[in-house]
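I am still learning, so would you mind making up any protein sequence you like and the tokens describing how it folds?
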Amino acid sequence: MALSVTPKEMLGRVAATATSTLSLGSLLSVSLLSFLASTVLLDFHTTIIGIAFSTYDLIFALTAIIALAGGVFAIYHLWNMKLVVPADDEESEETSTPPMSAEPEEQPSHAASTASSYS
């Protein structure tokens, strides 16, 4: 959704930011859960409704609850959302800045001057 409303010249920056944010989130979540599993929840054991839960069972159960809550949140807030795509009309093309030329500007050649200095 975010990339569909992002200007074409900014797509790379938005995608890079999204990728970096997701990587940071993964790193932090693994670090936090590893810390909790090795310290606070090290000796955690309980039985709920005849089902035994240990450290990793609790971590996976909490992760599932958070994922389900995120899904419900997304469905609730995004169900009737409509993306607005800008129309490609002539007025927007006239007011926009012209695209950069595909051909590079001609640079002065140093090879010609170097070759003439040897003769």
Observations:
- The CA atoms of residues 21 and 92 lie 33 Å apart.
